[in-house]
Write a structure and sequence with these properties.
The complex is a heterodimer of chains A (110) and B (130).
Chain A lengths: L1 E4 L2 E4 L14 H10 L6 H17 L5 H12 L6 H7 L4 H8 L10
Antiparallel strand pairs in A: 1-2
Chain B lengths: L1 H8 L5 E6 L8 H12 L5 E6 L35 E5 H6 L12 E3 L1 H9 L3 E4 L1
Parallel strand pairs in B: 1-2, 1-5, 2-3, 3-4
The chains are: A mainly alpha (110), B alpha/beta (130).
């Protein structure tokens, strides 16, 4: 599959994850979010940026439990909980947020 | 039967040790092993990792994989702490035989003799070797 962002064709897999992680940029994120029917707010970007930093450092997409804990540490307990993250990403902060952040599907995510 | 019932009650925690014996690249064992470890973290078990023989190379700092065209997944070992996997055991003789010391490794580990490693293995409920 492919989607068009600013005239550039971006390849995605059958689940909508980027094939080439280096294709990602904020405009690609907007397009990926549109496919998920999510309008990105400041709060979404906080999580997306966090995920990209995490991936950059550890080379994996974190498990939801690990993400939740790490977000709590960095952004405060009011954000480091499942309810907050699921409100932002209803289909799961692991799967949906990672997709929009241009990361691979989290390891162990089914 | 009793194990199964305990599991349903969420009561039984088993000691799992993943034993890594192979160099990080050239075969898929090290990467697959690491993925299994990350998945196992979801089940709230008592997980530890052992690194022996060429497996100690998995933890060496400064890996550069451009030449072998494989992803350098060594930074992922540093993520284990966030997964509450903090028991990493390294065989001293394996390190020494390869001219390595604890300072060459990218995570905090417990270096131990073969005899201590043997004791550690004997305490496990499940040993899985990669």
């Amino acid at each position: 599959m492919a989607m068009d962002v600013n005239g550039v064709s971006i390849e995605t897999d059958e689940e909508g994850f980027l094939v080439n992680l280096s294709d990602w940029n904020p405009d690609v994120a907007l397009e990926l979010a549109k496919g998920e029917s999510i309008e990105l707010t400041e709060q979404h970007w906080e999580v997306i940026n966090f995920l990209r930093e995490y991936y950059d450092e550890y080379q994996i997409a974190p498990a939801v439990r690990v993400l939740t804990k790490a977000i709590g540490k960095k952004l405060g307990p009011d954000k480091g909980n499942s309810k907050y993250l699921y409100d932002l990403f209803p289909y799961g902060p692991g799967k949906q947020a990672c997709k929009i952040a241009g990361l691979p599907k989290p390891t162990g995510c089914i | 039967m009793s194990d199964e019932m305990d599991f349903e009650e969420g009561g039984t925690v088993k000691k799992f040790m993943f034993v890594n014996r192979k160099a990080p690249y050239g075969t898929i064992y090290a990467l697959e092993g690491l993925e299994v470890v990350l998945i196992s973290a979801a089940f709230d078990q008592d997980v530890s990792l052992a690194f022996v023989d060429d497996g100690v190379f998995q933890l060496v700092k400064g890996q550069k994989t451009d030449g072998v065209e494989m992803k350098n997944f060594s930074p992922t070992y540093r993520a284990l702490e966030g997964y509450d996997i903090e028991k990493l055991y390294v065989d001293r003789e394996s390190l020494e035989a390869r001219g390595l010391t604890e300072d060459d490794l990218l995570v905090d580990v417990q270096v131990m003799s073969a005899a201590e490693m043997g004791d550690m293995m004997a305490q496990q409920d499940v040993l899985i070797s990669f």
